[in-house]
Amino acid sequence: MRLSIFANYLGSGDSNPEALGLYIVKSLNKYDILYSHMIEPRMKTLAEMAECPQSLVSIRKSFNNTFIVAGGYGREDGTKAVAENRADLVAYGRQFLANPDLPKRLELNAPLNKYNRNTFYISDPVVGYTDYPFLDETITA
Ligand SMILES: Cc1cc2nc3c(=O)[nH]c(=O)nc-3n(C[C@H](O)[C@H](O)[C@H](O)COP(=O)(O)O)c2cc1C
Question: 140: CA distance to ligand 1 center in Å?
Answer without folding.
Answer: 30
